[in-house]
Specification:
With 441 residues, the protein is mostly helical. The protein contains 14 helices and 4 strands. It has helices spanning 2-16, 31-48, 52-73, 101-116, 121-136, 141-163, 229-238, 247-255, 278-292, 297-325, 330-337, 357-373, 397-410, 416-438; strands at residues 263-266, 269-272, 379-381, 392-394. It has a two-stranded antiparallel sheet. Helix 3 (52-73) packs antiparallel against helix 4 and helix 4 (101-116) crosses helix 6. 50% of the residues are buried.
Length: 441
């Protein structure tokens, strides 16, 4: 696996250096160069089995490092000072010259990701090979060195900003204790994993006033009364076991699965099935939109950064609700109260049910991408081709978001109110993020 992972990094490296041409001027990097680095980040996250909230945090801070450099060199790009919560003052050194800010932005993303992610050494290999390759084909060595120097200065500031969000304190908290009582969440088969990131709502959000700023309507109260709303939701899910779906419903559910924790039984062993997170899927969709519209380097960095900020804050908001309501999953409830042999199509992720994280993240992503690329944006989503998932065509980001949301019902892992209210929650977060970063523009 590590050998294949390294080969993948070299493949991405060879692709990005295609933008470096021999000549007296540094090459002008484009949207594809940004997204090759985003793809590399996704590959490292898959390799490390990074959970969805943490993956969002990695994307956000890495993108912020690149954004900071772009904002210091492109007057059309606003600084985030005074916009993001506790964002530091970062000033470009006055004596710094002879750099290419686009290359610096790429280096800054790499430097930041390398320090944040467990397999960060992979970025060091990539970064050195990138610099050497550009030099071999005529990219001025001084420009490379000065660009990297600039990137490291900014990355150091962003990493300090990331450290101050208090995520590093979570490991010192007492181990999360499962709550007792009917209707509360409990681990599910086959691995019965403990809950993922139960304290994610304690970190500093990037734009939200607090993790609880957008608390959705409460879920249907748990009840085994057959006339209750909850029981009606239960019956809706019961009618959609893994064997009761149409081929289209199965395709939709599998397309949006995005579960990094999926495992399968191999004899007496559980084998992990590595997949990308919901946030990584939408970062990939952003790459498609930027490529399709031939977006500039600056716009590409802006889109990726604002989207990553939104996804991180979306997870903060959603996870705050998940561990407040601590609601039971359909699989657990149906097997306890209706059919002990019932199975969902998708494997149930290891955290409480309400609200649906994919519904929150997808709806906020659709709001943000629609802002930058217009409504009724037609595209083909082939983000997960490498995972054997065939592409799907969409007529808008909103259509894709709604399909991602309903996929959680077809997959048997969410009740309908978690999906509907998740869409509402995500839409509010997305609009809030846009209002903050655009300052009313």
């Amino acid at each position: 696996m590590r050998k294949l992972f390294f080969i993948a990094i070299i493949f991405v490296l060879s692709a990005i250096t295609n933008g470096c041409h021999r000549g007296s001027k540094p090459p002008e990097l484009g949207n594809h160069d940004v997204h090759k680095v985003m793809a590399l980040m996704t590959d490292v996250m898959v390799h490390d089995v990074t959970n969805p909230p943490l993956a969002a945090r990695f994307f956000a801070y890495a993108c912020l490092a690149g954004y900071e450099i772009v904002s210091e060199n492109d007057k059309k790009v606003k600084s985030f000072q005074g916009v993001l919560n506790e964002y530091p003052v970062i000033s470009k050194p006055k004596d710094l010259s002879g750099y290419d800010y686009r290359l610096s932005a790429i280096f800054a993303i790499l430097e930041t990701a390398a320090k944040l992610q467990p397999s960060g050494k992979q970025y060091t290999i990539y970064e050195q090979s990138l610099a050497d390759s550009c030099n071999r084909i005529g990219f001025d060595r001084d420009v490379i060195d000065h660009s990297l120097q600039y990137a490291k200065l900014v990355s150091k500031k962003i990493l300090a900003y990331a450290k101050a969000d208090k995520y590093n304190r979570i490991s010192n908290y007492l181990r999360y204790k499962l709550k007792d009582g009917p209707g509360t969440w409990e681990p599910t088969q086959p691995a019965y994993l403990p809950p993922v990131e139960p304290y994610f709502n304690t970190i500093r959000p990037l734009t939200l006033d607090s993790a609880a700023q957008f608390v959705p309507d409460p879920p249907a109260p748990f009840s085994t009364n057959k006339n209750s709303l909850f029981y009606k939701f239960l019956l809706m899910n019961d009618a959609k076991s893994e064997t009761d779906l149409t081929s289209e419903q199965r395709d939709i559910a599998n397309f949006w699965d995005c579960n990094p924790f999926a495992v399968q039984n191999e004899g007496h062993m559980l084998i992990g099935l590595k997949k990308i997170s919901p946030g990584a899927h939408w970062m990939g969709i952003a790459a498609i939109a930027c490529k399709q519209t031939d977006a500039s380097f600056s716009k590409t960095v802006v889109v990726n950064t604002v989207l990553a900020i939104g996804i991180m804050d979306g997870f903060v908001s959603c996870w705050d609700e998940k561990f407040r309501t601590n609601r039971i999953r359909p699989e657990t409830a149906i097997r306890k109260y209706i059919d002990p042999n019932w199975r969902p199509l998708l494997q149930t992720p290891p955290f409480p049910e309400y609200t649906s994280g994919h519904s929150v993240v997808s709806s906020l992503a659709a709001v943000i991408l629609t802002h930058y690329f217009r409504d009724n944006f037609h595209y083909t989503d082939n983000v997960e081709n490498d995972f054997g998932v065939p592409p799907r065509k969409f007529d808008s980001f909103e259509q894709a978001a709604k399909e991602a949301a309903i996929s959680r019902f077809w997959g048997g892992i969410h009740f309908m109110d978690a999906i509907d209210n998740g869409i509402s929650q995500g839409t509010k977060v997305g609009n809030w993020v846009l209002a903050k970063v655009n300052g009313g523009d």
